[in-house]
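Note to self: keep these together.
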Amino acid sequence: MVRVVVVDDSVFMREVLKDIIRSIGWEIVGEAADGEEAIRICRELGPDLVTMDIIMPGIGGEEATRGIKADNPAIKVIMVTAVGGQEEIMRGALAAGAESDHITKPFKKDLVRTALEKVYGK
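Structure:
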């Protein structure tokens, strides 16, 4: 079973994403509201996959991804964004070690599932 940490500064968005991930049959092992918390939780729990909001107060998704990948390069990170101009944002995220696919808000269950399975496999 794939072990997932969900990172987003919005409690509502975390809940929606966790429900979608659970419906795939994957396990939510942790969640974080900011990048600093995400790095700490990933160090402690060693998940297989992290869904990472890009824009958050404090340490944002790109910097948090760098920290997570520095600690454990095997953890896959898929970015979550609602922001326009995604190509520019994703370039920075890819340079930080994120996967090439991303999840867009508002979430559409089928698209989220497809992106997650592409990144981690079925």
